[in-house]
Amino acid sequence: MGAAASLAPITRYADAFIAKDDSFNFSFFSDTHVGLKNNIKECGEMFAEMKTRPIDFAINGGDVTDYGWAGEYDNYQAILKDFGLPVYHTAGNHDVRWSPQGVKIFRERLNAPHSYFEHKGVHFLLLDSTVPLSHWGHYEAEQLRWLAETLKKIGRSAPVFVVTHHWVGRDQVMIDNEEELRKILEPYNVKILFNGHGHSDLLWNWDGIVNTMNKGLYQGSWEFVEVDRAKSEIRMSRRTTQRPKQHLLSTVPLAADRGKRAVWATGSLPLTAAYDAARSGQIRVCYRAWEDIENVPSLAMLLGRAAGQQIVEIRDPKSGLQSTYLVDTPPPSRLRKIWQSKLTGGVMSHVKIVGDRIYVSAMDGSVSCLNKTNGRQVWRAKTGAYCHSSPVIDGDQLFVGSADANFYALDVHSGKELWRLQTEGPVYASAAVAQGVVCIVSGDGHFYGLDRKSGQKLWVYEMPKSNTAFAQTHATTDGDRFFIGAWDSHVYAIDVKTGSMIWRKPCFERTFAWSPAIGGPCYADGRVYVPANGNGLFCFDAKSGDQRWLVSSKTDKFGHSSPRIENGRIYVGGLGDLGEVRCHSAETGETLWVSGTGSIIYDSSPAIGENFVAIGSVGSLLSILDKEDGKIVAQTRLPLGHFLASPAAEGNRVYAGSYSNTVAAFEVV
Predict the structure, then answer these.
(1) Phi, psi of 248 (to 5 degrees)
(2) Which of 242, 325, 347, 658 has the smallest set of CB atoms within 10 Å of its CB?
(3) Three-class secondary structure of residue 508 per DSSP
């Protein structure tokens, strides 16, 4: 039993009369992580305990399942059946990150990833902060528009609760555009913001809003929330394993009483004036450590530490009041911005250059063709769901997959749809083309070989059945074989003409999470190079599948960034706080150089230019490194948004897209 995907319309507004006996209670918990075998008993016991309290319903703040698999939903829904009360859910990264069905199964089994309901005059907004196939958080523009419109209908006086899986308002930023959420919520009577993801029993204040987070339900933490109309207050209590009896955390008035904000916290002052007015407060730039303003010699010194668009935050650590500014500073002397264009969605894919055009797919389901010289849109096509799949161009055709379960062929000149193939699962992966055959992988566990011109199925290869029988990254080819890394811990070589398996080799087999599935394979000179999440860069013989070498890293780990090869050198990003880029010998795997960018690299893969390597980092940072020795040439920040996409380079130019709905072109000088 879950909340209905289509929830009740807004029925009460700020001026509605609320009776004093309209008091009620509910429970909040998150991170149930129900698996095929794990956490079932522990969560069941906590649900049974909740049922002994006088609650009307419960809210689950995400990571409902461990991996988003159908059997895990079966186990969770069996717990809900015994519980017998309504439960409303928001999606977590574990629900959409490793599941071949992603958001689709969450919607079918529980409710829409973001939703609204009203109960006795109190309004609940459950937000979707997940980025498909990723650890990080983001609010899509369409959802933020929905949120703003819904709050406008509710009005400024009615009490509102907000739920988000990835946390907001803490020193470590998980959601790249949390500031947009803060600005939308600020005028309204938001009482408590419920957070998940962090597996910690915490309470904090963000811009005057009480925020809370629990450990996972299976770890013994949940909250009992009382909405008391008679006393016009909300009482929030928590139980933990260490303190199994509910204990009061906070009392929050129901009335809209946030009071007047300090002038510096209204956002109406210029940055320099706010900086001068908030001398007893704190400041930080680009999510670095907070500093006491009185100890900062000058604002110019802070802004001089980086280039590009910088987010500057000023806060009062006692009240949590905050004001935020976006400041554009010139790029460094070695990097000249040529143009910047706005898209309709964030970018997670690989930017592609073909001739005088740039091609990029986006998370609103769009595929855009831009003029390489000025960034102007040539055409834009739309699929039915988000595009994690990167565009692949072959002759006059562009191929791209979509989470709507379709694979599309578009005219490269106009964007007109030429044909599409419907599969039984989302198409996250990117295609490869050889001998007139297009190879794609679907979330339904099949590899498809399609006729390039017509889209007709030439062959279908079925992966061994398992919960992890799918792929999300790109395929590659040597002309005779397609090479694919998958979530079942294996790398596949498939015959281009027949679709038969030539070889299938395991990487790390301890856990599927160590699969060669995020960073994709690349081919050069008879060898296939593929990273695996268990911290390994593998080299296989393309014909036989024999392993030639394996290297690991003692610092940032292999696994997420796809390798790129030029002149016998492999360039690849590492996953870790150092933001390392690594260069290895393609022949032996020997480390040639390692260089830290200082910002976490996630899925971004290097682009190789004339004399440089370019890569993106989570904090919107574009780094340019000398490809001979790895020294940093220049760094600049794109507009605010996670940089999970892979840039493209040609000559001395680099083209980069990010979750800021932006693509930009730079010249390295």
Answers:
(1) -65, 130
(2) 242
(3) coil
Alpha helices by DSSP H, listed for 19-69, are 40-51
C-beta atoms surrounding 342 within 10 Å: 11
Domain assignment present for 267: yes
Burial readout 259-281 (b: 16 or more C-beta within 10 A, e: otherwise):
eebeebbeeebebeebbebbeeb
Can you spell out the DSSP letters for 585-613? ETTT--EEEEEE-SS---S---EE-SSEE
Residue type, 349: S
Strands 190-195 and 160-164: parallel
Choose among 370, 404, 408: nearest CA to 391: 408
Element (H, E) at 99: none
State which residues form the domain around 295.
Answer: 263-329
Could you tell me which residue, 437 or 319, shows the higher pLDDT? 437
By CB atoms closer than 10 A (0-12, 13-18, 19+), residue 411 is middle
Question: Measuring CA to CA, how many Å separate 202 from each of 49, 167, 198, 212, 238?
Answer: 21, 11, 9, 6, 10
Question: What's the pLDDT tens digit per position in 110-119?
Answer: 988 899 999 9
Q: Facing residues of 668 across strands?
A: 335
**How many other C-beta atoms can be found within 10 angstroms of the C-beta atom of residue 408?**
26
How does DSSP classify residue 333?
Answer: T
* Per-residue confidence (pLDDT) for residue 7, from 0 to 100: 43
Phi-psi region at 142: left, alpha or beta (left = phi > 0; alpha = psi -120 to 50): alpha
Considering 308, 329, 350, which residue would you say is the last residue of a domain? 329
Nearest to 507, CA basis, from 483, 472, 539, 471: 539
For the chain, what is the domain count?
2
Structure tokens at 99: 């599941």
- Domain boundary (329, 349, 373) is at 329
Q: Alpha-carbon distance 452 to 442, whole Å?
A: 17
Q: Which amino acid is at 32?
A: T
Render pLDDT for 466-514 as a digit per residue (tens, 0 to 9).
888 888 889 999 999 999 999 999 999 999 999 999 999 999 877 777 8
CA gap 442, 472 in Å, rounded: 8
Q: Taking the CB of residue 597, how many other CB atoms lie within 10 A of it?
A: 25
Find out whether 252 and 239 touch, Cβ atoms under 8 Å: no
pTM of the model: 0.89
* CA pseudo-torsion sign 345, 347, 350, 352: positive
Residue 59 falls within a domain, yes or no? Answer: yes
